[in-house]
Amino acid sequence: MFLLYGGLFFLLLSRFLFIQVTGTADGQVLSAKAESKYSREQVIQASRGKIIDRNGEVIVEDTLSYKMIAVISPKATNNSNVPRHVADPEKTAQVLSQYIDMTEQEIIDLLNKNIKNEMYQVEFGKPGRDISFKKMAEIKEHNLPGIIFIQDMKRLYPNGQFASHLIGFALKEEKEDGKAVAVGKMGLEYIYDKELTGTAGKIEFKGDTKGFLLPNTEKMITKPQDGDDIYLTIDKTIQNFLEDALNKAEEKYHPEKMTAIVANPKTGEILAMSQRPTFEPNTREGLSTNWLNEATEQTIEPGSTMKIFTLASAIEQGVWDPNAFYKSGSYTLYDRTIRDHNVYGWGTITFLEGFQRSSNVSMAYLLNRIGDETFIEYLHRFGFGEKTGIDLPHEASGTILATNPIERVTSTYGQGTTVTPIQLVQGLTAIANKGKMMQPYVIDKIVNPNTGEVLTDHKPVEKKSPISAKTADQVKEILASTVTSEHGTAKRFKLDEYTTAGKTGTAQIAKPGGGYYWGSNFFLYSFLGMAPVEDPQLIVYVAVHKPQLEGTEVGSEPTSEIFKSVIENSLKYLNIKPKSLELASPIKMPNVVGKDIIESQSLLESQGLKTVIIGQREQVKEQFPIAGTSMLASGTVFIKGQGEIQLPNFTGWSKRNLLIYKSLANIPIEVIGEGYVTSQSLTTGSIVSDTTPVVVRLSTPKETEILPELEENMEIPPQD
C-alpha cells in the first residue's frame, strides 16, 4: 500500500511540476485557456454614413431601433422566484404575434424547437429586428419573462418617396458570424456602399462566468468608425417641389412613366432628379422590375427638343436666316417624305416661324445649309453619343444615327438618334451659360465624420465650348420666342412672374419589335427649358411617356404643369428676382467689421442695401456677405454687433436667409416646413439668447403670396 500510494503521489507531483514548468496541459496553453475563459468582448456598432443635401439637410441616416431576443433556457432563471426565461411559450406567442410579422403558431414552433435543442436564447429573424421604441415599450408593458431587447440601428429614409431611384436603399444582411449589417442594394446606397459602411468598435474586458466585470481589471475600448457622409448637390426643397409636381401629374394623367431633372446651368449641379413610377425606400413598396435611373441609364428618342441643337449649329455656322422663307408641310429625300406634325404645314413661312411652330420640314431645309457632316460634328460637340461623365454608374451614351441621309435628317428633329435626359440638360447648359457647357454632377463632397476630413470634393467642370457666347444668346432669344410668339408651341410654359425659354418635344416611342406607337396617348411629350431668360438660374427637363389625355387635352398640358410648378416655386425659394422687379445695380460689399455698428448700418443703407442687425451695441464682429462680395443694390446684409439680440420680424423670409440669421445669431431656431416664413413663436422685438427656443413656421409659395425681399443667391455661412 505504501509503495502504491507513494507511486501515485510521485506521479501527481511530477504532473504538477511539468505543468508549472511548461505552462501546458493536454497540449493546451493554460494561460491562453484562462484568458479565453474570462475574456469578454462587446461590439459597439458603427453608424452607416449619412446622405445629406446641399444645405446640410439629412436625406438618409441611421436611427436607433431594437432587436428582440427570447431567452429560453431555464438556466437563466438560476433558482430565482421570478422567471427570467420564456416559461410559457403559448402566452408569449399570443402577445408577440400582435406586434411582429409572425403568426402565433410560427412563434410557438420557433420557441419549442430551440427549447428542445437546449438553446440558451433565440432571435426572431427579420420580424424581430428594426423594432421602434414605441413598439418595444408596448411589448414591455406585457411583462413577458425572457423577452429582452438590444439596441440596434435601422436605415431611415425620412422623406419617403424622394429621389428614390437616385438615393436607392440598403437592407440588413446576416453575415457568417450571425450579425446583421446594412448593405446597399440600389442607387447611391449601392454605388457608395464601401464608403458608407462603418467599422464596428468593441469593448474588451475580463469578467466572471456570468459576464460581470472582474474587480481591478481594465476595459480596452476600440471606438467605432462611422461610415463616410455623402453630401449631394440635391436641394431638398427643390426636390420636394419636383416630387409634388410629379405626384399631381401622375394622379391626373396616369402616364406610363415620367422623368424630370432640375439643374444649375452655371455649375452643372443637379438640384433635383426623379421619375415615375417610384417607390417608398423604407418599405420598397412600389419597386418594380425597373431599377434603372431613367435620367442617366435609359435612352430615348428626344423629339423636337433636339431642334435646339440643330438651331445652334446653324447659327454658329452662320447659315441661319430667320427671315428666309421655305415651303412647309413636307420634304422629300429619295423615296422618303418628311412631314410636319400637322401634316399639311402652314404654307410658305419664315424659318423663325417654322422653329416657333416646331416644323420638322424647316429642320430638313436647315440641314441642307449646315451640311450633313458638320451637323453630326456639332452633335458630338454638344456631348451626344458619349457619356456626360456624371458621377453615377452605368450611364448610357446613346447613339447618333447618321449612317444614311434620311437618318441625318430625322436626327435634326430628334427621331432615330437616341440620347439620355442628362445629355439634353448638359447640352442646354451651353445655351444658358453663354456657350460654356458644364458637366453634370450630383456628389458635392464625401466627408469622414470621425475626423472631419474631406475625402472627395467635387468642383464644377467646364467642358469644351460647342458654340460662342453670341450664338448662345441668340438661341436663347429664339427659344424665348416659342413661349411669347403667337405661333409658339410653348405658350403654355409662360410663367406669371419670370421670363422663360425652351423647346417642346413630341416624340414617337419605338415598339420593342420594331416600328412606332401612334396616337396622342402613345407619344413621349417633353420640355427642355430655362428661366429667367435674362440670366438663367435653372434648367428643367420634363418627359411624360404615354399620358392618358382626354379628347380636349394636348400633350403639353402635363409637361407644362410640372415645369411651371417646379421652376416658379424654385426660383422664388432661391430668392431670384422676378422680371417685374427692377434689376438693381451690382455693388461691391464694403468691409464694416470693427466699425461702429450704427455707423455701419447708415453706410450700408446709404448705398441702397437693407440691413439686419444682430446685437445693437459697439463694433461689428461679423458681417454677411463678407467684404468684397459682389451683390445687388437693395440686397440685404447681416451685421452682428454685441449686446442683447432683439428678434426681427421673420415674415416673408426664405429658409435660406433664416438659416443665415440662425448661424450668425447662434439662436436655437426650430424651422418647420418649407418655403417662406408665415409665423414665429416669439413676437418681433423679443430679447433672445442662445438658450431661447424659437419656432418658425414656413409655407410653400403656393400656400402664401409673400414675395421675399432679401438678397438673392446668398450662400449660408458655415455653422458650428
TrEMBL record:
InterPro entries: Beta-lactam/transpept, Beta-lactam/transpept-like, PASTA_dom, PBP_dimer, PBP_dimer_sf, PCN-bd_Tpept. One of its GO terms (cellular component) is plasma membrane. It comes from the Bacteria. The keyword Metal-binding does not apply. Transmembrane segments: none annotated. This is serine-type D-Ala-D-Ala carboxypeptidase. Keywords: Membrane. It catalyses: Preferential cleavage: (Ac)2-L-Lys-D-Ala-|-D-Ala. Also transpeptidation of peptidyl-alanyl moieties that are N-acyl substituents of D-alanine. One of its GO terms (biological process) is cell wall organization. Residues 641-700 form the PASTA domain. It is found in: Membrane. GO terms for molecular function: penicillin binding; serine-type D-Ala-D-Ala carboxypeptidase activity. Belongs to the transpeptidase family.
